[in-house]
Amino acid sequence: MSANHRSCIRLVNAGFYAWHGVHSEEQRLGGKYEVDAELRFDFRPAAEADDLGLTVNYQRAYEIIGSVMTGRKASLIESLAFEIATSLMLEFPLLESATVKVRKRNLPLGGLCDYAEAEHRIDRE
User: Fold this and answer.
1) Which range of residues forms the domain containing residue 116?
2) Where are the alpha helices (DSSP H) in the chain?
3) What is the CATH number of the domain that holds 75?
4) Residue 1: predicted pLDDT
5) Domains in the chain: how many in total?
6) 92 to each of 74, 83, 89, how far by Cα in Å?
């Protein structure tokens, strides 16, 4: 059968308490962050063989996200989204693309806003 297979694994709303932000108070007190990762690749070989070794281990992906989120302090959620996407692409050579969204709750805006979000996508060439 000739077919174009498209596959994706998503981690949605991975939650972390971390110490990022432009203001020193944000870095001192910390805040709630959420991360979504969309990992695109052809997982047909893994599905057909039912073999974890042929796919993206999403437990390992979560560990990578967590190490970035709870590692060094960043001023920008843009930096976090970029670093996570880059780290995932390096760890999993079978990825065709990685899209990462980092959401920051409890914004110091002086008004109501659910969250701010930065998204970064890397496509393998």
Assistant:
1) 8-123
2) 24-29, 44-49, 58-69, 77-91
3) 3.30.1130.10
4) 58
5) 1
6) 24, 14, 5
pTM of the model: 0.91
- Residue 114, pLDDT score: 87
- From the list 32, 73, 101, 104, the catalytic residue is 104
> Is 1 contained in some domain?
no
Q: What is the model's pLDDT at position 117? A: 95
Instruction: Say if residue 27 is exposed, middle or buried (CB neighbours under 10 Å; 0-12, 13-18, 19+).
Output: middle
pLDDT of residue 23: 81
104 part of the active site = yes
Contact by Cβ (8 Å): 9, 43: yes
Residue 40 CB coordination number (10 Å): 19
Q: Quick check: 16 pLDDT over 80?
A: yes
The predicted model gives 65-73 an average pLDDT of 95
